[in-house]
Automatic annotation (TrEMBL):
This is Triple tyrosine motif-containing protein. Pfam families: Y_Y_Y. The chain crosses the membrane at residues 713-734. It comes from Flavobacterium ginsengiterrae. CDD domains: FN3. Residues 745-786 form a coiled coil.
Length: 918
C-alpha cells in the first residue's frame, strides 16, 4: 500500500448543475470566480454556486480566457465575449459576426491568448487576431494548420504540423525551429526560462530550446510521460510543473524534474484524464477532467492519505517509535518508515481493533481488542490476552509498573528482568475502563460512558480497591472522556468540561474550555494531550487546542477551522498524534491526514453578493439588479439574496452573518449557508449587509445592498391625495347629509312641537269643554234642582190647597155659598193641566229631547205616561208623584205597572233604571 500524503482534492460534478462532464479550458476573474469551457457552454463557479450559460447557438465552448472585465470564449464557428449585467448575470456579445463570411465551415476555436492590445482566437486551421482599439481583425492561416498556440513572456508561439515552431512578429508567422522532434511530436505547452524555452511534448517528454539547439530535459517520470500522452500542462507559481495526461492522472514535478506527487483516480482524482489545468490566485490547481472538475489545494497545511482499498480502515491510534510510523486501525497494526513514501506493512498477529499506542520506557505498547502487545520494529508480542485493553497509565513513584484499562476493569503490568509482563487484575472494580487517570493519595478516576465517573481507592500493593465512589455530578454522557492536563484531571461531555478540585475531590465546570461546546457545537467529548503539553478538543466546526501561557497560568486557545464533517473522524474515537514539532497526524475513517499548525495562515478574502431574486407568491423567481439600488413592487416582497467568499479550500468553510437594516436589529448567527430569504417584507427602505468569517477570522470587507419595497398603489402619495379628495368629498356630503338630517330633525321637532301645541290646544279645548260640560252639568243639576224644587213647590202648593180645600169642606156646612166659591178657586189652582205645563217647560229645559226619545222608542205612551216617565227620570218616589197627579200612591203604583207593560220590560229590569238610561 503506497503511503504518501497528498494535497487535499475537492471533487466537483458539474453535471449536477446541468453542465457536461468535459471542461477544455479554465480561467479566473479579478473576483476569484472560475470559468470553464464546457461541453454544454460556459460554466461559472463563484465558490458557492454554479451557473451554466449555453454557448452561442447552444454549442460547446472550447476555450475561455478572462481579460479585464470580459470573459472571452471560443466555440463552434463563433468567438466573442461575455460581460456582467446589472442583474449579475453574463451576456454574450459575438465578435465573429462581423467576419462571419471569413470563418471556415466547421471551424472551432480551441484557444484564446492575449498580447498587449490584441486578443488571439486559435482554431485548428488559423489564428484570428483582434485589435481591441481599432476593432479590426487580422488572420494568420498557415498552410498546414495550427496544432496549438502558446503565450510566453513577450511572445506568441504556435506549432504547425510537419513545419515546426513559429513565433508571431508584426502580425506574421516567423519560424523559430524546424527541429525534427518539433515536426514529429505535438507540443502541449511552452514555458519561458532564463536560458530559453521549455517545450512540453505530448508523447516525448520535456525539451529545452536554446537558440536553435533542442535538448532533452531529464525528469523522474520520463518513461511514464512517453506512455501517458500529456494533454495539458501548467507551470505553477512555486516553479514546479503540473502535467495532465489522458490516462495516467496528473504529475507534479519540481523545477528540477523531481516527482512530488502523482495524482490518479486511486489517489483522489475523479478521473485519470486531465483535459485542462489552471492555477488560481491562491495557488490551487484546477483540472478539468473527462468526468468532472477537481481542485487540488497545493498550498494547504493539510495533506491526506486516503485508503480507497479499505485495507487500512479506520485509524484509531498512531505513534512515532524508533523512526517508524505506526498506525492502529480497526484492521490491525500497520507501520512504515516515517517521512517516506514506502508502503504500509501489516504487523502479523495484530488482526483486529487497535485502541491505543503508548510509548514508555523505550517500549511501544499496543492496546488491542485481544489484549496487550509489545511492538518492536515489524513484530508484535502478546503479554496479556484475558481482556481487551483500552489504554495505559504510569504509576506515580514506581516506574516499573503500568496500569492498563481493560474491558473488565484495571490491571497491572510489571517490568521483571527487563521484560514487561502481566501481574494482576485489581479486584473490586469490574467496569470497562476506557478512560482513567491517577490522582493524589492512590485515587484513580474512571470515566464510563453509560455509568458516569467513579473514584477508586487502591491499596498500596495495587491488588484491590478499597471501595469506589460513583459521582452523581457531572452527569454521564455520550462520547464522554477523561484526561490529565497540567497535573489536573478534566472530564468532558455534552454538558461541558469539568476540572477536578483536588481538595474537595469534586468536579467544577471550566468556563473557558466549556465555551467550545456552546451554540450546539458538541460532537464529541474526546480530550487528547500531546507530547508538547497541548490539550486538543473537537467540535462541530473546529479543532481546538489549548496550551499553557508562558507568563501566566491562563490557557491560550487556538482554533483550527476544520469542521468535523470534512475531517471524517470517527466520533468518540478522534485521535491526534504529534509526529514533529508542528505536524500532527489525525486519524479518519478512511486513512489519516497530517496538519502543520505553523502553516495555518490564510489570505484575507472578500465577500460578494452574487445575485438577488424576487418572486410573487406561488410564482417563479425573477433576477434583480445588484449593481444599483433595487426597487421592488409591493407584491414582489419575497426576496432571496445569495452571497459568497470565492475561496476553494477543502477543509475550511466560510461562515456568514447578515443583517437587514429596517427589518432586523441584530446580526444573525454565523452559518455556512450562503443564501437567505426574506418573505413578505413590508414596504420600506432596507439595507442588506453580509460579512464573512474565514479560518475563524472576520474578513475586512462587508458587502451591502440597498433596496426599496414600494408601497402598494393604494398606499402611494397619489393614492393618499385621492384619498384626501375622497375624504373631502365624503366630508362635504356627510356634512350635507348631517345638515339635511338635522334640518329634517328640526322640522320634525317643529312639527312635533306644533303637534304638541295643537294637542295642548285640544287638551285645553277639551279641558274647556270639560269645564263647559261641567258647567252645563252644574246648570242641568241646578235646573234639575230647580225643577225638583219647582215640582216640590207645586206638590207642596197642591198639598196645601188640598188641605185647605178639605178644611173648607168641613166648614162649608155653615157658610156654603162663600166656601164653595173658595173651593172652586182652589180646584182651579190645583188642576193637573197647569202643574204639568209648568213642569214640562222646566223639564224640557233641563233634559232636552228626553220625552221625544222615549216617545220614539215607545209610540204607545200617552201624555200621562210621558208625564210619569218625566217624574221617574227625576227619581221621584211614588209618594212624591201621587200629589202631582192628585191621585193616591196606590194609583201611582198601578200607573207604573201599566207603564212597564207598555214598555215591555222584563221582570228583572227596573223601570227607573231603564228610564234613567234612555
Amino acid at each position: 500500500m503506497f503511503a504518501q500524503e497528498f494535497p487535499p482534492i475537492i471533487k466537483y460534478s458539474p453535471s449536477v448543475y446541468g453542465a457536461g462532464n468535459q471542461s477544455w479550458m479554465i480561467s479566473q476573474d479579478r473576483n476569484n470566480y472560475l470559468y470553464f469551457a464546457n461541453n454544454d457552454g460556459l460554466l461559472e463557479y463563484n465558490g458557492t454556486s454554479w451557473q451554466l450559460y449555453p454557448g452561442p447557438n447552444e454549442t460547446i465552448v472550447r476555450s475561455v480566457k478572462v481579460i479585464g472585465n470580459r470573459v472571452y470564449t471560443g466555440s463552434y464557428m463563433n468567438f466573442g465575449f461575455w460581460t456582467r449585467q446589472e442583474n449579475g448575470k453574463l451576456k454574450y456579445t459575438s465578435l465573429s459576426d462581423s467576419i462571419k463570411n471569413k470563418i471556415l465551415d466547421d471551424e472551432q476555436f480551441w484557444n484564446i491568448l492575449k498580447y498587449d492590445q490584441w486578443i488571439l482566437f486559435q482554431s485548428l486551421n488559423r489564428i484570428y487576431i483582434y485589435d481591441t482599439k481599432t476593432r479590426q481583425f487580422k488572420i494568420i492561416a498557415p498552410k498546414n494548420g495550427v496544432v496549438k498556440s502558446f503565450a510566453a513572456t513577450n511572445a506568441i508561439y504556435f506549432q504547425t504540423l510537419k513545419e515546426g515552431l513559429f513565433e508571431i512578429e508584426s502580425g506574421k508567422a516567423k519560424l523559430v525551429s524546424d527541429d525534427p522532434i518539433l515536426k514529429k511530436f505535438t507540443i502541449a505547452n511552452i514555458f519561458t526560462t532564463d536560458e530559453g524555452l521549455l517545450l512540453q511534448t505530448q508523447l516525448d517528454g520535456i525539451y529545452k530550446l536554446t537558440g536553435n539547439t533542442l535538448t532533452r530535459v531529464v525528469t523522474d517520470v520520463d518513461a511514464e510521460l512517453k506512455s501517458s500522452f500529456v494533454y495539458s500542462s501548467q507551470r505553477l507559481q512555486d516553479g514546479s510543473f503540473a502535467l495532465g495526461t489522458v490516462s495516467n492522472g496528473i504529475f507534479i514535478l519540481s523545477d528540477k524534474g523531481k516527482l512530488k506527487y502523482h495524482l490518479t483516480q486511486s489517489k483522489g482524482l475523479s478521473n485519470n484524464t486531465a483535459l485542462s489545468l489552471f492555477e488560481d490566485k491562491d495557488q490551487n490547481l484546477w483540472t478539468g477532467l473527462d468526468n468532472g472538475i477537481n481542485c487540488i489545494n497545493m498550498q494547504s497545511p493539510v495533506h491526506s492519505f486516503t485508503d480507497d482499498t479499505g485495507v487500512l480502515g479506520t485509524v484509531y491510534a498512531s505513534a512515532i517509535y524508533n523512526g517508524m510510523l505506526y498506525i492502529g486501525t480497526n484492521q490491525g497494526l500497520f507501520c512504515k518508515p516515517n517521512q517516506s513514501n514506502s508502503d504500509f506493512k501489516f504487523i502479523n498477529g495484530t488482526k483486529g481493533q487497535v485502541w491505543s499506542l503508548f510509548v514508555y520506557d523505550n517500549t511501544l505498547f499496543c492496546g488491542h481488542d485481544s489484549g496487550t502487545f509489545i511492538v518492536a520494529n515489524e513484530t508484535a508480542r502478546s503479554i496479556f490476552s484475558a481482556s481487551g485493553t483500552w489504554k495505559f497509565e504510569t504509576v506515580p513513584g514506581n516506574k516499573n509498573l503500568l496500569l492498563q484499562g481493560n474491558y473488565y476493569g484495571i490491571s497491572v503490568l510489571d517490568k521483571v528482568n527487563n521484560q514487561w509482563v502481566f501481574r494482576n487484575k485489581i479486584q473490586g472494580f469490574d467496569y470497562s475502563s476506557r478512560y482513567f487517570e491517577t490522582g493524589k493519595d492512590s485515587d484513580v478516576y474512571v470515566s464510563h460512558e453509560y455509568k458516569g465517573i467513579f473514584r477508586l481507592k487502591l491499596d498500596k500493593s495495587l491488588l484491590k480497591t478499597q471501595g469506589f465512589f460513583a459521582y452523581k455530578s457531572p452527569d454521564k454522557g455520550k462520547y464522554a472522556s477523561l484526561t490529565k492536563f497540567n497535573n489536573s484531571i478534566y472530564y468532558a461531555y455534552k454538558g461541558g468540561i469539568f476540572k477536578l478540585n483536588p481538595n474537595t475531590k469534586q468536579f467544577v465546570k471550566d468556563t473557558l474550555l466549556s465555551s467550545i461546546f456552546e451554540k450546539d457545537e458538541y460532537t464529541s467529548g474526546k480530550l487528547i494531550v500531546d507530547t508538547s503539553n497541548k490539550i486538543w478538543l473537537f467540535s462541530k466546526n473546529y479543532i481546538h487546542y489549548f496550551s499553557a501561557s508562558k507568563l501566566s497560568n491562563q490557557l491560550k486557545e487556538n482554533i483550527i477551522p476544520i469542521p468535523s464533517s470534512l475531517t471524517n473522524s470517527m466520533l468518540g474515537y478522534e485521535n491526534i498524534t504529534q509526529i514533529s514539532k508542528s505536524t500532527y497526524l489525525i486519524g479518519t475513517t478512511d486513512g489519516y491526514y497530517t496538519l502543520n499548525i505553523d502553516d495555518l495562515s490564510f489570505k484575507n478574502y472578500n465577500v460578494f453578493i452574487t445575485d438577488i431574486t424576487t418572486n410573487k407568491q406561488n410564482e417563479t423567481f425573477k433576477n434583480a439588479g445588484i449593481l444599483n439600488e433595487g426597487s421592488f413592487k409591493s407584491d414582489e416582497n419575497n426576496i432571496t439574496l445569495n452571497y459568497t467568499v470565492p475561496e476553494y479550500n477543502k477543509y475550511i468553510n466560510s461562515e456568514y452573518q447578515y443583517l437587514l437594516e429596517g427589518f432586523q436589529n441584530e446580526w444573525s448567527e454565523w452559518s455556512t449557508k450562503a443564501t437567505v430569504n426574506f418573505k413578505n417584507l413590508p414596504p420600506g427602505k432596507y439595507i442588506f449587509r453580509v460579512r464573512a468569517k474565514y479560518a475563524n477570522t472576520i474578513l475586512q470587507n462587508a458587502a451591502s445592498y440597498t433596496f426599496v419595497v414600494l408601497k402598494p398603489w393604494y398606499l402611494t402619495n397619489l393614492a393618499y391625495f385621492i384619498y384626501f379628495l375622497l375624504i373631502l368629498t365624503m366630508a362635504y356630503f356627510v356634512n350635507k347629509a348631517y345638515r339635511n338630517y338635522y334640518q329634517k330633525q328640526k322640522e320634525k321637532l317643529i312639527e312635533e312641537n306644533n303637534l304638541l301645541l295643537e294637542i295642548k290646544e285640544l287638551e285645553n279645548e277639551q279641558q274647556l269643554m270639560k269645564l263647559r260640560n261641567e258647567q252645563l252639568s252644574q246648570d242641568v243639576d241646578n235646573k234639575n234642582r230647580e225643577l225638583a224644587v219647582s215640582t216640590m213647590s207645586l206638590n207642596s202648593k197642591n198639598e196645601l190647597l188640598a188641605f185647605i180645600k178639605e178644611d173648607l169642606k168641613k166648614t162649608a156646612q155653615n157658610d156654603s155659598s162663600n166656601i164653595k166659591s173658595v173651593i172652586s178657586t182652589i180646584n182651579k189652582n190645583i188642576t193637573e193641566e197647569d202643574s204639568w205645563n209648568v213642569f214640562k217647560e222646566a223639564f224640557d229645559n233641563a233634559d232636552k229631547d228626553f220625552l221625544k226619545r222615549i216617545k220614539q222608542m215607545h209610540p204607545a205612551l200617552t201624555p200621562n205616561d210621558l208625564r210619569l216617565c218625566a217624574y221617574l227620570r227625576l227619581n221621584l218616589s211614588s209618594k212624591e208623584i201621587a200629589p202631582m197627579f192628585n191621585i193616591s200612591v196606590r194609583s201611582v203604583e198601578i200607573k207604573r205597572y201599566r207603564l212597564r207593560k207598555k214598555m215591555d220590560l222584563q221582570h228583572e229590569n227596573g223601570l227607573v233604571e231603564y228610564i234613567l238610561a234612555v
